[in-house]
Amino acid sequence: MPGQKVVLYGLKNCDTCRKAKRDLEAAGNAVSFVDIRAEADLDAKLPVWLKAAPEKLINKSSATWRNLTNGDKAKVGTKGEECLLAKHPTLIKRPVIEAGKAVHVGWGKDVQSALIS
User: What integer pLDDT is reported at residue 18 of this predicted model?
Assistant: First the structure.
């Protein structure tokens, strides 16, 4: 919804995060950017994000995912993903956008229509 205050969690050098921020601002939203590695309180945020979007939060197409051991990958789906994501924040699919009480992951058409239509 245009005109709302949103918090965008991502990486400063992520093209998708920059595009999402630009699009959200162009639609009239007030966007606060939080660097997921340096500034985010992942201990507080990960449980909320995993509850809201458990199947979307882990970026299995990332280089970080490909470099994990099979043992670490096996933690996904066993409630071990919170520790895994806290240890490797670049595994988090970006951006994560908080708009009110809603949590959106990624910048696909579904998220775009929910936030800028």
Answer: 97
Q: Residues with catalytic annotation?
A: 14
Q: With beta carbons less than 8 A apart as the criterion, state whether 20 and 73 touch.
A: no
CB contact at 8 A, 99 and 92:
no
| Cis ω for the linkage preceding 95 (within 30 of 0) | yes
Q: What percent of the chain shows pLDDT beyond 90?
A: 85
Q: Which residue has 């240890």 as its token pair? A: 87
Pick the CATH number of 5-116 from 3.40.50.720, 3.40.30.10, 3.20.20.140, 3.40.50.2000: 3.40.30.10
Q: Facing residues of 99 across strands?
A: 6, 102
